[in-house]
Write a structure and sequence with these properties.
Number of domains: 1
Bound molecules: fe (ii) ion
Number of helices: 6
Largest sheet: none
Strand content: under 5%
Mean pLDDT: 91
CATH superfamily: Ferritin, core subunit, four-helix bundle
Radius of gyration: 18 Å
CATH class: Mainly Alpha
Shape: elongated
Structural class: mainly alpha
Length: 173
């Protein structure tokens, strides 16, 4: 993408607003993950969530620093998408009484969140590059890689959980 100088300020404004939304997103995920850990029955799944909670807390700190560097404070902007994904996850968990089905539901919901984060950080990384902010672009790239890895680990756990789920409860009509 080519940018003209008059577009740079508009992109910078958009970038900062999106960074503030990413901060709100990470804070909400950090708040939601302890419930996901608590609701998991598969030990591998609980471990994956626990490890990603640690990473998520680091994401909060990193994005907070980037927002502070760009604006002088660490105020957030509401990320409506993550609120909707978390509300939907909570509804799905309530509906899934059988433990293995609940694990599958938790993985599905968590992967929707990871895919959203992957889209957010892919965009932010590219915008940081366009704005010539190489340090921020590198940090965003490292967060992006952790989100991709979290998504992959959830797929790996899903293989185990899916095969141990009771077929009659998982797929019966
Ligand atoms: Fe994250
Ligand atoms: Fe994540």
């Amino acid at each position: 993408m080519k940018l003209f100088s008059e577009n740079i300020e508009d992109l910078r404004t958009l970038y900062i607003t999106s960074l503030k939304k990413a901060l709100d997103m990470e804070q909400k995920i950090a708040k939601a993950l302890p419930t996901m850990i608590e609701k998991s029955t598969d030990p591998q799944l609980a471990t994956a969530f626990r490890n990603h909670l640690t990473e998520t807390q680091q994401h909060v700190a990193k994005v907070q620093t980037m927002v502070r560097d760009a604006t002088g404070d660490d105020s957030t902007s509401t990320c409506k998408a993550i609120s909707a994904l978390i509300t939907e996850a909570e509804d799905n968990i309530k509906d899934a009484a059988e433990p293995s089905i609940r694990d599958i539901t938790l993985i599905a919901s968590a992967q929707q969140v990871e895919h959203h984060e992957i889209a957010v950080y892919g965009t932010l990384r590219t915008w940081a590059e366009l704005l010539g902010q190489d340090g921020a672009a590198n940090t965003l790239e490292s967060i992006l890689e952790e989100e991709k890895n979290a998504d992959k680990l959830l797929s790996d756990v899903a293989d185990t959980v899916n095969t141990t789920a009771e077929p009659r409860t998982a797929y019966s009509r």
